[in-house]
Structure formats: C-alpha cells, structure tokens
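Archive entry: two folds, one per protein. Generate the first.
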Amino acid sequence: MRIGSIYTLYGRRAGAELLTEQTLLGVSSRFRDITFVVYCNKEACDSLPNSSRIEKRYVEALNNQYSKMLWIEFVSKRELIRDRVDMFWINSGCNAFPGPWNVPTLVSFMDFGEYHVPHKYDFKRLISRKLICIPRSLKRGTVFTTISNSTANDLFNLFNKKSTVIYPGASPRPLSTGSSDYKEVIRSETGHRYDDFILVPGRTDFIGKGLDVLLNAYSRILRFNVNVPPLVLVGPAGEQHELLLREISSLDLKDRVVWLGRVSDSCLNSLYKLSKFVVFPSRFEGFGFPLLEAMQFGKPIISSDAGSLPEIASDAALIFPSGDSSALATAMVQLISDPDLGSKLISLGLKRVNDFSWEQTYSKIYNLFLHMNNSNNHFDSRFQ
C-alpha cells in the first residue's frame, strides 16, 4: 500500500507535529506492506527522519500555509497519479484537507478548540480552518479518527460525523536528560539555577492555555504565603504572548515568574525532574502530551477540566474548573502543603500512563488503512 500524506512545519514542532512524525515512522517500520509518500515543505523535509519506507517529496508551494491550500485543491491530484498513491492520510483535518481526488482518505482530527475558545486563533487562521479545511475534510474524507473521546464527541455534536478514537502513546519525545546533574543542564542552557519550582509546560497562548487564570491564582497565593515556589513557564511564544509579559509586570511578578522560552529536550526533561508539581490551566486541549510526560517523570499534576484533559488525566490529577483562578489557587495550596496528596497523585499517574501505547496506536491506524484498501477497487479506476 502506498499512502500519501502532507506534513508541514512553520516554525513550531509541538505535540501534533511530533505525533505525525512518530506515526509515520512507527507504522512504516512495523508494517512492511506500507510505504508513505510524504509531501513536505522545506522545514518538514529537514525534520522528518529518513526511512526506507518514507518517500519525501519537497513541494515549494507548501512553504506557505495559504499556497498549501491552493496546491491541495488544484495540483495535488496530478502528483498522486504520478506517485501511484493508493490511499491518503490527512494528519490534521483542521489544517489541511483532501484534494478533489477519488483516493480513499483517512482524516485525523486533533481538536476543535476554535469552537470552544473565542479568539483562539488570528482571523486568517480561523477562516482557513473553519471555512476551508474543516468543511472539505468532512465532505471528502472517507474515514475519520480522533485522538480523544472529547474530540470524537465534538466531531459528532458539531458535524454529525462518527470517528474511531485512537489514543497516541505517552510521549513522542525522548525523555532521557543525558545527564544526572539536572540543575547544571538547566543552568547551562537558561542561566537559571532552581531548587524548587512549579512547572507550566506548553506554548504561551495567553487565553487558550489559561495563563491569565494561572497568574491570577499565583498572585492570590503570594498575598498569604511568601514561601510559595517560583513559577517556571517553558515553551515557545504563542498567541497573545505580549499579554503574558504585560500581566507578569502588572501583577508585580517579575521576581517570581519566569518564562524560559523553547528549550532542548534535555533541558525540558531536567525541568520536569526538578519541579515540585506541574500545572495545566488550559481552556481547551484536544489531548495533552505534557500531562502524560509529567506522569512519566513522577510528578503531581493540577489540571483544568477543559476539553480532553480530565479524560487523559483520569484520577491522576487535581482537577479544577477551567477559568476559575480561585479553585486553581486552592489546588496549588493543597499540593504545596500536603506531601501525602502529592505522593498519591504520583502513584496514580505512573499507573495511568501505562494505558497509552504507541504499539496500539500503530496497529489501529494500520488496520484502518487495511480496511480502506480492501474496500476499494484498483488504483487506476479511482482516478477516472
């Protein structure tokens, strides 16, 4: 089976992008009857590791998100015929869509956050997702997958489409720090030295990631307890990042809250290792790899109840109502003051993370490809 796919990177390589890479590599290496033909922009071509069963095709039009849509709509069919593609996989039906081809297409959806969080994206991206990519994905897709029951419910409730839920594995990142001197790894890369801190991983989408709620909760705690550990945010700058910096300044938190930006895997792993606990205040998430990473590193977790987060966390986190800074402050005080509660959450997290397996992910996706292949006629007739 020759399966086409589109993979593009535009200055970020977060959970969704790592999931795509992991799936391409994992499925192609385990199932010898599959070859992926991956149409990439320059950044994605450089990022995606070479493999005997992954044929990378550099497409200049994919270097821009908007020329990408024109390429899909008006050029891609010719490329699929040339490459004799039997099926196609759209790894994010909100950011791309099947072209006007007749090849059966599996469309995966990560989340529908724009329907839950106003102003989650800028105007152009919102229009491209809601008016172009999603409608065409729904109309042209043959089979749909989602990465959580939360996203599956959204797909059905918003568009009356059923899907197969396929959880990813626990983390697509390497979790070894390469060193046992975690403080030195952090210091050498960031210039900071920490002994005790609260970690908040993820892109700094100020509203979408609930960072306004986090800062208000943290400021509330500091009024009554000056011994609260510092707050360390790590991840690339996101939507409304300037509001984050402005709020830190306006709440007079410059000496207590630090944003480290994007760091290496080794540094991020060291931050997980040394953190007191990890907080996820998001207003919406389609899955949440950092939740599972915190569990793998044996860290207590506080999470909002937004999107899929309570589904993924199960009983291995303190859950608070999304947007409620008072409830978040209460949960943070609980973990700071109650070591037994932290130990209980760690134990539950180490158990919960075992429910997520990449091998199961690969097998379920492969079985869908197999079903699609067996349900259709020979390649040549599907392009007529």
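Generate the second and append.
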Amino acid sequence: MNASVGRIVHYVSHGTPVRADGTQAFTGQCRAAIVTEVGDPEATEPELMDVSLAVLNPTGMFFNQDVPYSEDRAGGSWHWPERV
C-alpha cells in the first residue's frame, strides 16, 4: 500500500515524559490522522514514506510534518490502521 494525500492512517502520540519512577502520566496513544503530504510519492515501501499529517485528537487537531512510518508503533510515527 502506498500513502497518498487524503488517506486515513494512525498516528502514535509520544505521551508525557517518563518520570523518575518509570511511569508516565499519559502513555502514547493511537490517533486517527489524515495524510496531507507525502515526502516521496515514488517510494514503494512504507518505511521510506515520511508523510505530513493532520492528527485528530479528542481535544483538538495538530499538524505534524515528516512523520516516519513504524510497524512497531513507536511514539511519533504513523502506521496503517489495523483491520477489524
């Protein structure tokens, strides 16, 4: 699958900084996002596709550029939505 403008993907938020005791007030969460720009539209592998996103959060939206793809769902990355 190739990313393209207008596609729905998931963005993984970073969460809050890790405290000294190893906990976080808020952990990273999957959020719906819309692709607004594809860095290299000729790329054939998601790992090579940094995209710009409009991320939809329960309390508002934010925009993020050059977001890397990650199958591991690392904070600050995007991935394809799971099929359910």
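Annotation attached to the second fold: The two ends are 17 Å apart (CA to CA). The beta strands are 8-12, 30-38, 51-57, 60-67, 77-79.
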